[in-house]
Structure prediction request, 491 residues.
Amino acid sequence: MTAPVREGTTLRRSLSVWQAVGLSVALMAPSMAANINPQGTALTVGRATPLAFFLAAIAVLLIAYVFVRLCQYYRHAGSVYVFAGATLGAPAGAVAGLCLMGTYIFYALVTSSAAGIFGATFLDIIGVWNDQPSWAGFLIGFVALALALFLSVVPAKRAAEVLLSAEGITVALILVVSLVVLVRLLAHNAPHDATFTMKVFQVEPGTSTSTLFLGIVFGLLSFAGFEAASTLGEETENPRRDIPRAILGTAIFGGVYFTVVTAIEMMAFKPDAEGVKAFAASGALVGDLGTSYIGSWVGDLITLGACVSAFACCLACVVGASRLLFAIVRDLSPGHALGRTGGNDTPAAAAVVVGATVFVIAVICAVFFNAEPFDTFFWSGAIGTLILLVAYVLATIGCIKLIWIDKKMPQVRRWEIVIPVLALVMIVYTLYRNVLPYPDAAPAKWFPVAAGGWLLVVVLVTFLVPGFAQRLSRGLRELDEAHTEPEVLGG
Prediction:
């Protein structure tokens, strides 16, 4: 049996597995993350930053298993909205979907701010725009957001090609720099007498397990977005095979990439007190290493590459958020403009709403809280991650129910339940360490408030709006009735 198709509410199946990988890699933004995320971990675990990233990679692989199994069963643009809704009920689906959509919206502000920061810096370096005003980063960030919105409304195939190409170039540049640095470390001719050492995988004496896990929290932030391909379930040619491969492949790549690159970065800065301090204070880790180990021109290219990576991630955020909004509204109110596709068979109206929301949040931060581009970058990143963890929790519980309680995937072995259970433990503990002990200083003390505010609004809308859950349930029932036997990764 096939689900009824409503004209103007379907997405075009035109994407390959590599284009799905492009969306996940772009949203994870490995080149941008490698330049700015490890510093947060270094502030807590010092020289053991690469160890924290390695342990974070293991946690991400556990979570990736959850998304792989769910994508093998469901093919839908709604991602966690469907994963939680079809397994735990429409209210849970609405909460999960709106949480993930909120994460993508906040991450769009994170990455457009980063594009503005790196873009303004690059224009200053090459002499195009010197003596910049304080709002220069915002201006370039808004241009990046507008371009991302435009590319999200054209056929998704073109957008995916842009994502994969842009991120591929910047990642390749970082890998080249990392290889050069590694060779010089091994040859004992690196600056400041830095050498290859495995101390970067050893915790400093006196560091508690709790502190190490707090460092892992920062590592997990670098992987956020690896599941973005799950929103392309209606646009890939073979979704039950290609989407799981894209998610698992991205998670494995991210794990190896972040562990190796972060280890090389820490070795190059030297794993002693002075080196860790310089590491944590770096504005762009790979950029600084490119300048020190090769030449200043390499640092300039890394800055440009980070700007391109940030833009690609912004585009992926807009694409992911617009498809989640489209999927929920399509089931909630058939015929509504936000639940219909435009002339390019993409959810254009939903994308415009997402872009406008990001713009409004940025204006509120700048006007009412005197935020600089760096502020909107860090504030939105913290808030978006807290919201994301809630969506991960619901998706993981839904996976356990689908496979081991409802027994809808009999081909899955019983012992595999250990994997999502471990994933759930990691997610809940990560959420706990982000909130408690509760920060008492601004702006950190407002992060849980903002994330909790978004969650509260989502819950109130879900449970208090008359008929909300019932209307969503119709679409979810149609989806489950249309289900066919899932494919395995090798299928």
